[in-house]
Structures are given as structure tokens and as C-alpha cells.
Write a structure and sequence with these properties.
The complex is a heterodimer of chains A (337) and B (286). Chain A is mainly α. Chain A has 15 helices and no strands. In chain A, helix 4 packs parallel to helix 6. Chain B has a two-stranded antiparallel sheet with strand order 1-2. The chains are: A mainly alpha (337), B mainly alpha (286).
Chain lengths: 337, 286
């Protein structure tokens, strides 16, 4: 072990990851600019922001804890129905407060189901997460007096934000609201994964046995991050229910879980931006492909997935990293010239 | 009551024929193949085209479906699947979901999105009374065919050289390779047979399960339940699991239709938590 790092050196490397880079600041400035630059596109951008938050929740458990879930839609749907019901029966009229409650409720659900995914192999986890989403879907269908069953939850009226900003039909308020929520939860996630807790999660993902040998409680860490991720997914679902004023059974569906996994894979796992970038690519692709071959766009999505796997995710990430290393160099060269 | 039991058994045996190929993929290569239903769908549509459009007799349509799916299976195995065996489970999941999406859209494009039916000959329609139990002729045929297949599988697995090679490969692929067994070839042959059986099951199942482009997604969870609950170390486990699942599903839909498949999913979760290796698994070192 010749490459033993001195302690300050390690601290410096860890801190460097936590510092805001040029790309990150540019990314959020660009996101802010979309509010003013593309007012006609706010409806689709709202969806991107929501799906980005949803994919971020999956990134937390997949990219940082290594849990493969095919049932993240369980919490998405749960949050959506929570927010929908709160608004429909006028229990909580303030959207932000309803959002917090829905997210918290989903996190509680996540906490209780997290013990189910701790055991077993990848396959068991896939089946159990998938099963949880299906069970919730069946329950929502069963209690149609409460949820509206197959017709979906209709008649939701969302009160103005903070009692002042009304949700307009062009989605301007909705977009600003979703973007602000996304940014807030992104900051929280960023803080979390760069904290000692986040670093210990990486250790668990890398090698659970060794992690427990250095005194990390593997189970506790997994339960915690699964709970947080469930809350994130619930908030994303609640945002969708609030901006579309609708919640339906397909929010629990397998396709939704698969789509969010695809978004995350498109954007890349384990660096937080993957979810948002992936959601943007996914939505643009859907828009473009559906315009060319309406209804059959799933074929191309499938083709993209198969190609990504056959080429290899590591190889693609490698190419991207190579490109990214080039950019600052050429920028610096241009400044020098 | 007994009619429900009978229908449940027919349904369960059908599920077994559909899913047994998946047990091998999962047990032998440790490959999570969510696209297994696509082969069943392929078989179903081949039989549909052969019987309804080309006028092939129904009973001849079944072996055609088997051959077509087996061919498709070996083709995909040799060209695509072999590259994914060594990859992580996440990659395997992504890959097979991608295949499912492509299959769904491709079938939707070529065959239309509505549900199709195969014309069943008259002598298979209706049901007769046997000691007061209503027995559907078609379901009797399903039980007969699936029973024969199960018996044949059991014989092949336990009494032939190929069967012992396959079992050796499932138990420990590395040692089997060391003993000079060509695990890759054994696997390719088994994959083809499994896909073929899925195709046959798909063709048989059109009458019972229905067939539309979303078939692989709708029944994916059922195949996975059969395999994960039954375990992959023997053929008996998935068989018992299929029969139980079939009876439970038919009875559940008959007695408490509103609850749908709720009970099945719950039982699956409980079983997986209780015994992650499957109900009937032997203790394995893996």
C-alpha cells in the first residue's frame, strides 16, 4: 500500500467534491434562465422538473446505496394521492404545506417498507419493490370510494400558492414552484451525499462487509437513505398531482418505475445531476420521437436501453469524462489567447 | 367450487409451461430476464397468424409456435444475450426491459393494439359434466398437454445425459466447466427450449390469458413469482408454485374480484422475506 494518503490530503479530496464547480453554477443559472427564455414551454419543463426530482430519489438509493428498485413509483403514487386527497377535501389548502405532508407520509411508508428490501439478493429486492408498488396500486383500486379507482382522483382544486400566486393554465406559476422545490431538495440531497453520512453510504455500496467492519451500521444507513428517497419520490408525486390537479392509478405502474430508471441511466447515476439531465433528455426524446412515430416511441426507448447496456455504461461514462476534461482546457486556452 | 379448482390447475399448469424457461435462465446463468414474456407473446402471435390467417389446424399451430419461439430464442441468445451474462444485475434489468419495450412496440405496430383470439376448433369448445364438476374441454386439453410436457421435462432432467449436464451446470457452473461440460452450449440449448415452451404456452394461453401487445408486461410479474417463490434449484419448486398461484388467482378473482391480485402480491412479498431463496429451495452455498 504505497499510496497511503495523509489525513489532510484525504480531507482535501473529500472537500473538493463538495465544493460548487463551474458546471454546477452554470447548470442552475441555465435552469433559472428557462423561466424567462421559454415561457411557452413551461408545461413540458414542469414535467421535466418533476421527473428530475423523481429520478433524483432513485439516484439516492441506486447511485449511492446500490439498491435496485423497480417500484419507486409506489412512493410517487402515494405522494400524489396524499396531495390530491388533502386538496380535494380541503384538509390542507396551502400547497407547500400539503407538499411537505405528502412527502413526510411517503417517507413514513418508505421507512416501514425499507425493512423488506434489506434482505436477499438483487432479484429479491427487485421483486419486493415491484410487489410493493403493485400492492399499493391494487389497494388504490380497491378503495375507489376514496381514490376514485380506475377513473382517477378528480375534482382536485389547488389553492393559490402562499394564498397569493394562482396556478394558471399556462403553467407559469407551476413551473417556478416545481423548479424551486427541485432546487431546494437538490441542495438537501447534495448536502446529504457529501456529509459523512453520504460518504459512509458509498462505503456500504462499495463493500457492505468491509463497511460494517469499520463500524458503519449497514442496515441503519440503508433504512435511512431508503426512507429519504421515498420522501423525495413522494414530493415529486405530490408536485405532479398539484400541477395537473389529477392523480391516477398509472402513477403506481411498472412503466413509471421503469421510465424513471431509464431517465436515471440516461443521465448517469451517482452524481445527482443524472436524474435531472436524464429527465430532460427523456422528455425531449419522447417529444421528438412521439412526433415522428406517435404511439410507437417506446420502441426507440427500448432500443436506447439495449444499446446502452451492450455498449457498456462504464465505457460511455468514460467517454463523457474524457470530453468533460477537454472542455475546461479549451476554455483556458481561449482565455490565454 | 371444484370447477374453480380445475380451472385454477389448468391456469397454473399453463403458467408453469410459460415460466419454466425462466427458471433455467435465472438458475443457470443468474440472469434476470424480464423479457421472458416476449417469447411467449411471439409464440401466441405466430399461432394466431398460422391458425387464423393461413388456416393451419389449431393443434398443428402449437408446435409451429414452439419452433418459432425457440428459433427466436436461440437467435437472440447468440446475438444479444451472451454479451450481457457477465454484467451486473442492473444492466441485465435495463437490457431486458429494453427488449420488452421493443417487443411491445413492434407487435403493436405490426399486429395492432387490440386483443386477438385464436379460432378454436368446435370439439374443444364448451364444457361437459363429470360427476357434477363442470370441465371445460379446452382446459382439459391444456392440462393434458402441460402435464405431458412436465413429465417429459422431469424425465429429460433426471434420466438423460443432457439433464445431468444441465443440473451440474446449475449447481456449480465453474466446476461443471472444469469437468469438460460445455456450459455455454448446454445453456444455449436450454434457452431455446425454454423460449419454445414459453411460445407454446403463449399459444395455448391465448384462450385463457388473452393476448395483446402488453402481454409481456402484464404477466412478467407472474412468471417472476413462479420462479422466485418456487426457487430455481429444481423443477418441482416452480411447478408447485405455479399450481398454487394458478388456483389462488382464479379463486381470488372469483370470490373477491375487487381485491384483484392484491393477495398474491402480498403473499409473494411475505414468502420472499421469509425465504429469499424460494419456498422449495435446497440450501445452496451461493
Amino acid at each position: 500500500m504505497s499510496s497511503r494518503l495523509a489525513e489532510p490530503e484525504v480531507a482535501r479530496l473529500v472537500m473538493r467534491r463538495a465544493r460548487w464547480g463551474f458546471f454546477e453554477i452554470a447548470f442552475w443559472l441555465a435552469a433559472l434562465a428557462t423561466i424567462f427564455l421559454f415561457p411557452a414551454r413551461h408545461l413540458i419543463l414542469t414535467e421535466v422538473a418533476i421527473l428530475g426530482l423523481f429520478a433524483l430519489s432513485l439516484d439516492l438509493i441506486l447511485g449511492y446505496a446500490g439498491i435496485i428498485s423497480l417500484g419507486q413509483a409506489a412512493f410517487f403514487g402515494f405522494g400524489a394521492y396524499c396531495a390530491g386527497l388533502l386538496a380535494k377535501h380541503a384538509l390542507v389548502t396551502e400547497p407547500v404545506l400539503a407538499l411537505v405532508i405528502a412527502g413526510f407520509a411517503s417517507a413514513v411508508l418508505g421507512f416501514f417498507t425499507s425493512f423488506l428490501v434489506l434482505r436477499g439478493s438483487d432479484l429479491t429486492r427487485i421483486m419486493v419493490t415491484l410487489g410493493i408498488a403493485l400492492v399499493l396500486r391494487e389497494l388504490a383500486n380497491r378503495y375507489d370510494g376514496l381514490t376514485g379507482g380506475a377513473d382517477g382522483l378528480q375534482g382536485i382544486e389547488i389553492a393559490p400558492l402562499f394564498g397569493r400566486f394562482r396556478f394558471d393554465m399556462f403553467g407559469h406559476t407551476g413551473y417556478v414552484y416545481c423548479l424551486a422545490v427541485l432546487f431546494f431538495f437538490f441542495l438537501l440531497a447534495r448536502r446529504t451525499v457529501n456529509s459523512p453520512f453520504g460518504l459512509s453510504l458509498r462505503a456500504v455500496k462499495g463493500n457492505p462487509l468491509r463497511a460494517s467492519a469499520v463500524g458503519i451500521s449497514v442496515k441503519g444507513r440503508l433504512v435511512a437513505i431508503y426512507t429519504v428517497a421515498a420522501g423525495y419520490a413522494g414530493v415529486a408525486g405530490a408536485l405532479l398531482a398539484q400541477t395537473t390537479q389529477f392523480a391516477s392509478l398509472d402513477m403506481f405502474s411498472f412503466e413509471r418505475s421503469a421510465d424513471v430508471l431509464l431517465m436515471l441511466i440516461l443521465g448517469g447515476t451517482g452524481y445527482l445531476y443524472g436524474g435531472v439531465v436524464g429527465a430532460l433528455i427523456f422528455k425531449l426524446m419522447q417529444d421528438w420521437l412521439a412526433g415522428m412515430t406517435p404511439q410507437y416511441w417506446q420502441f426507440w426507448i427500448g432500443l436506447v436501453l439495449v444499446s446502452i447496456v451492450l455498449v457498456g455504461r462504464e465505457r460511455i461514462a468514460h467517454w463523457l469524462a474524457a470530453i468533460r476534461r477537454r472542455i475546461p482546457l479549451s476554455l483556458a486556452r481561449r482565455q490565454a489567447a | 367450487m371444484l370447477t374453480i379448482l380445475f380451472d385454477g390447475i389448468a391456469y397454473g399448469m399453463l403458467l408453469f409451461v410459460l415460466a419454466c424457461g425462466l427458471a433455467v435462465t435465472l438458475g443457470l446463468m443468474n440472469f434476470v430476464n424480464l423479457a421472458h414474456g416476449a417469447f411467449a407473446m411471439a409464440g401466441g402471435y405466430v399461432a394466431f397468424v398460422a391458425v387464423n390467417r393461413l388456416g393451419v389446424p389449431f393443434l398443428l399451430g402449437l408446435p409451429i409456435a414452439f419452433l418459432a419461439s425457440a428459433l427466436l430464442g436461440i437467435l437472440l441468445e447468440q446475438t444479444l444475450y451472451v454479451h450481457v451474462y457477465g454484467k451486473s444485475h442492473l444492466d441485465q434489468v435495463l437490457f431486458s426491459i429494453g427488449l420488452v419495450f421493443m417487443a411491445v412496440a413492434a407487435v403493436d405496430y405490426t399486429m395492432g393494439s387490440s386483443q386477438v383470439f385464436i379460432e378454436v376448433p368446435d370439439y374443444l369448445k364448451g364444457q361437459f359434466k363429470f360427476f357434477g364438476v363442470g370441465i371445460g374441454r379446452y382446459r382439459l386439453l391444456v392440462i393434458a398437454i402441460c402435464g405431458l410436457i412436465t413429465a417429459a421435462l422431469q424425465l429429460v432432467l433426471s434420466h438423460t445425459r443432457f439433464g445431468s449436464r444441465l443440473r451440474a451446470s446449475v449447481d456449480d457452473a465453474r466446476v461443471a466447466r472444469g469437468l469438460g461440460i460445455n456450459v455455454g452450449a448446454v445453456f444455449a440449448a436450454t434457452f431455446a427450449a425454454g423460449s419454445g415452451l414459453a411460445g407454446l404456452g403463449g399459444a395455448l394461453g391465448v384462450e385463457i390469458l388473452g393476448l395483446d401487445p402488453y402481454f409481456p408486461l402484464k404477466f412478467m410479474i407472474y412468471f417472476l413469482i413462479v420462479v422466485t417463490v418456487g426457487g430455481t434449484s429444481s423443477i418441482t419448486g416452480p411447478f408447485v408454485a405455479s399450481i398454487l398461484l394458478g388456483i389462488a388467482d382464479v379463486a381470488g378473482k372469483y370470490y373477491v374480484p375487487k381485491l384483484g391480485a392484491f393477495a398474491i402480491y402480498t403473499v409473494m412479498i411475505v414468502v420472499l422475506i421469509w425465504r429469499p431463496q424460494g419456498l422449495f429451495a435446497r440450501g445452496t452455498a451461493k
